[in-house]
Design goal:
The protein is an alpha/beta fold. The chain has 10 helices and 7 strands. It is globular and about 65 Å long.
C-alpha cells in the first residue's frame, strides 16, 4: 500500500497521522518525510524507517515511492506546493498512490485549505476514490455532529467536492493529549496501548519502598496508558474504515 498524507495548510496533524494511524499499522513500511523547515514527528519514533527529503529532490522521492511496496509519504506544509508541482511534471507519480489522505481540522483557515487541497489533487488527475478526507482533532468534549464541527468541508463534500474525494462515511480521529505525551516516549500510540506493565503493582512497590518519584512515574504512566488505549481504539476503527481489506498488524 502506497499512501500520501498532505494538506496545503499546516497544523492539521499530518505527521501525527502518518505515525500513529498509518505506520503503526504497517510495520516495516518505508516512510518518506518531505520537509525542509521543521522536523517532522515521524523522526521522533525510534522504530520507524524514515528517509527525509525536500521537495526539490523529487526524483529521489519518486524513486522511493516506486521502489517500496509499503510506503508512507508525509508532505510538510512548507513543501506541499513544490511537491504537487513536481507531481504535475512527473505525471505517472500521480498513479502510484493507493490513497491520498487529506486531514481536516475544525479551524476555519485549515478547512478552506483542505478544500483547496482536494481541488488541487483533482486538477492533478488523482482519482476521486483515492482521495480521502479525514476529520482530525475532533473535540472529545463536543456533543456536536461532524457536520457542525467541520461545516465548510462537509458542505463542500456534499456539493462541488462530492466527485473529487471520499468524505463519507466520516473518518474521525478524536483530539487527545496522549499524542503529545507519546512524543516523549518515542513510541507509537499502538505500542503504548499494548504495554502490559502492571502499573497498579508498580505503584504498590513504590509506595512500600517510600519512593515518591517512582510512585509519581507509575501513576503518570497508568494515566498515559489509559489514554493510549482509548486513542488506539479510535485509530483502529478509522484504519479499518480507510483500509477495509488490510489485515491487522501483529504486535511484536
Amino acid at each position: 500500500m502506497k499512501t500520501c498524507v498532505l494538506n496545503l495548510s499546516g497544523n492539521v496533524g499530518k505527521s501525527t497521522l502518518a505515525v500513529h494511524l498509518l505506520a503503526a499499522f504497517t510495520p516495516g513500511a518505508r516512510i518518506v518525510s518531505v520537509e525542509s523547515i521543521n522536523a517532522s514527528e515521524v523522526d521522533t519514533v525510534d522504530a520507524l524507517d524514515v528517509e527525509a527529503f525536500s521537495a526539490s529532490r523529487f526524483r529521489e522521492i519518486f524513486r522511493e515511492i516506486m521502489l517500496h511496496e509499503e510506503v508512507i509519504v508525509d508532505v510538510g506544509a512548507s513543501n506541499v506546493a513544490a511537491f504537487m508541482g513536481e507531481m504535475a511534471r512527473f505525471r505517472s507519480a500521480v498513479g502510484e498512490f493507493d490513497l491520498v489522505l487529506v486531514p481536516a481540522v475544525p479551524a476555519d483557515k485549515q478547512q478552506r485549505d483542505t478544500i483547496a487541497t482536494v481541488d488541487w489533487l483533482h486538477a492533478l488527475g488523482v482519482l476521486p476514490r483515492k482521495v480521502r478526507v479525514l476529520f482530525n482533532q475532533y473535540p472529545t468534549d463536543s456533543l456536536e455532529a461532524v457536520a457542525s464541527v467541520y461545516p465548510q468541508v462537509v458542505g463542500y463534500g456534499l456539493s462541488e467536492g462530492r466527485d473529487k474525494a471520499v468524505f463519507e462515511p466520516h473518518a474521525v480521529v478524536a483530539r487527545s493529549e496522549v499524542f503529545e505525551l507519546a512524543k516523549s516516549t518515542r513510541r507509537t500510540i499502538r505500542d503504548l496501548a499494548g504495554d502490559a506493565t502492571d502499573w497498579k503493582a508498580a505503584r504498590g512497590d513504590a509506595r512500600r519502598a517510600g519512593d515518591m518519584e517512582a510512585l509519581e512515574r507509575a501513576m503518570a504512566a497508568q494515566m498515559t496508558h489509559d489514554l493510549a488505549v482509548t486513542a488506539q481504539d479510535n485509530l483502529a476503527r478509522v484504519h479499518a474504515l480507510l483500509f477495509p481489506s488490510a489485515r491487522p498488524a501483529r504486535r511484536a
